[in-house]
Amino acid sequence: MRLSKKQLGLFLGVSFILSGLAFWVYQHSFKITQTKELHGITDFDYERDKDFILDVFEKNMYWLVDVKTSPDFSADYMMRYLTTNSNPSTAGRLTIKVLYDHNRPAGFTAYYMKHFYLGTIRFVAVREEFRSKGYGKLLTGYALRDLQSRGAAKVSLVTRTSNIPAQKVYKASGMHVVEEEEDGFVWFEKEFEL
Question: How far is CA 187 from the centre of its chain?
Fold first, then answer.
């Protein structure tokens, strides 16, 4: 089949526009997930981010940690050794990502692969002055996608039943309640098709 000059010109013009659009989307998504100059999620750096995360834990410990079941929890130990608990054998398993808003740390998430098919989001926290901007959903979505890319068929997390704003974020991220206990905690899960 032969194309006329007009059809060929139209085809090349559309191809040029689509390739330019694809390049813009690639650059834009790269900035969102890789830099901290605008609204970006970046890898945790202990020296740069520790004071911010320690401050978030100090102000929100009740919402982030059940001190009854984890009385020895240390945010500094968690960050220093990238571990989910005080057991040295779990060191290096935790991934921490920090969300920046115009060079200011706004929130973070921490997650890990609990088993070869099960991912767990341990923390999603947004600094008070940055709330209601969709950052909790952005961090949750990032953690879900990253865990899925690592092979998770299911991702779980737990929060307090009284933490209604967090529950709204998790539901908006496609997670659903699988268990709610009388002691004040609710479990969420999201399953992925393999």
Answer: 17
For residue range 153-172, list pLDDT tens digits in order. Answer: 999 999 999 999 999 999 99
Global pTM reads: 0.78
Name the percent of the chain in helix, strand, coil, to the closest 5: 45, 25, 30
- Residue 88 corresponds to which tokens in the numbers above? 């040295």
125 and 103 fall within a common domain = yes
In a shared domain, residues 25 and 80? no
Cα–Cα distance list, 107 to 15, 40, 85, 136, 150 (Å) = 39, 10, 21, 8, 23
Domain extent, residue 82, equals: 41-191
Among 188, 132, 161, smallest CA distance to 63 is for 161
β-pair partners for 111: 95, 121
> 118: which strand partners?
154
Whether residue 9 sits in one domain with residue 51: no
Q: How far is CA 32 from the centre of its chain?
A: 13
Give every strand in the sheet of 154-160, ordered side by side: 39-43, 95-101, 104-113, 118-126, 154-160, 185-191, 176-180
Residue 152 sits in the same domain as residue 77? yes
The CA distance from 9 to 38, in Å, is: 38
Instruction: Give me the CATH number covering residue 147.
Output: 3.40.630.30
